[in-house]
Write a structure and sequence with these properties.
Strand 1 and strand 2 form a beta hairpin. The protein has eight helices and nine strands. Helices cover 33% and strands 16% of the residues. The protein is globular. The longest helix is centred in the C-terminal third of the chain and has 25 residues, at 237-261. The strands form two sheets. It has a five-stranded mixed β-sheet with strand order 7-6-5-8-9. A four-stranded antiparallel β-sheet has the order 1-2-3-4, covered by helices on one side.
């Protein structure tokens, strides 16, 4: 900071450890068993101010936030089945503001409401009264559970099951890991990746579109959480899971590129966990054959990335798949 002060005038009281960043509260945490402190981000202070504003705006509507809330959405509620009347123009604008606020809260670490906010954001153009009240229900849930903190743990995951790399040389000999030509020399400690991928097959009961959920860790810090409905309708859970895995690999490659351009060294492959055994076998066994042509693009894209050791895939039970929270209501 003293060197920076030679070029930029810094106020004396501004030279200190960071406490806020883009609405997030920055703090230090020491996890059980660790002998070091690590940074953590939370949104409690930002959320409290938002709750104050939201309560003030819904007061003229004779509305309040519920106090007894046990889930992120009302029990049994399906946004796509909502048949309540459309809201008026002013309420529709307010609804879009609420969704925008919730989306930023998701970015700040409220991963448990990511899938629900994504579902409700599909109705920004013409929300119904039920959608509006569901958005308020999420605020009520966050009011009851305000202490969302993501610890950016720099420790390594130490996976118990090292994955064996298969020989893809006969199938994808033309594929190679394309490094940026202008990337800086990597310095410092290398980072490792862990990715969880899940899909809720035909979850939308109206269109039967599936939902993709991806959660990517750098070391033991959650960095990317993604929840979005798939564009096409898949006829099997295998198809929806493979499409989700393709999306996850795309996000992973983007993150690898970004870190490399920042000079961060990358260690080994990404330990990828999915809960569909057919997807695991078709991705990790070179001799496996694809039976459905509609999944061919995702099939070869994922396998070619396994061939150059960007990721290796293993099966886990659904109860251990952390991406499940990004696909289910």
């Amino acid at each position: 900071m003293d060197k920076l002060n030679n070029f930029f005038v810094l106020k004396p009281d501004s030279i200190k450890e960071p406490t806020t960043y883009l609405g997030a509260t920055i703090s230090k945490h020491k996890l059980d068993g660790d002998d070091y402190f690590t940074w953590a981000i939370g949104s409690e202070e930002y959320l409290q101010e938002l709750l104050r504003v939201v309560k003030k705006q819904i007061a003229p509507m004779q509305l309040t936030l519920k106090k007894k809330v046990y889930s992120t959405l009302p029990t049994g509620y399906r946004p796509e089945l909502d048949s309540t009347p459309f809201v008026d123009d002013d309420t529709a604008i307010f609804y879009m503001q609420l969704i925008g606020i919730l989306r930023w809260l998701v970015e700040l670490g409220s991963i448990d409401v990511a899938a629900k906010v994504s579902m409700l954001s599909s109705y920004n153009a013409m929300p119904c009264e039920g959608h509006f009240h569901a958005a308020l229900h999420i605020f009520a849930y966050l009011q009851k559970h305000p202490d969302h903190v993501l610890v950016m743990d720099c420790g390594y995951a130490h996976h118990l099951r090292p994955l064996k790399k298969a020989d893809y040389s006969k199938f994808y000999e033309f594929t190679k890991d394309e490094l940026p030509s202008d990337m800086p020399t990597p310095l410092g400690k290398a980072v490792e990746f862990t990715m969880f991928v899940d899909a809720s097959h035909a979850a939308n009961v109206v269109t039967r579109q599936s939902r993709t959920g991806v959660l990517i860790f750098v070391n033991k810090a959650p960095i990317i959480w993604y929840s979005k409905k798939q564009n096409s309708v898949k006829t099997s859970s295998f198809g929806s899971e493979f499409a989700a895995l393709k999306t996850g690999v795309e996000l992973l490659e983007g993150l690898r590129f970004k870190l490399r351009m920042m000079g961060v060294p990358i260690q080994g492959y990404c330990h990828t966990c999915v809960d569909n055994m057919s997807v695991v076998k078709n991705s990790s066994v070179p001799e496996s054959q694809l039976k459905k042509k509609s999944n061919a693009v995702a099939y070869h894209y994922v396998r070619s990335r396994c061939a150059i050791d960007i990721l290796q895939i293993e099966w886990i039970i659904s109860a251990e798949n952390l991406a499940d929270v990004l696909t289910k209501i």
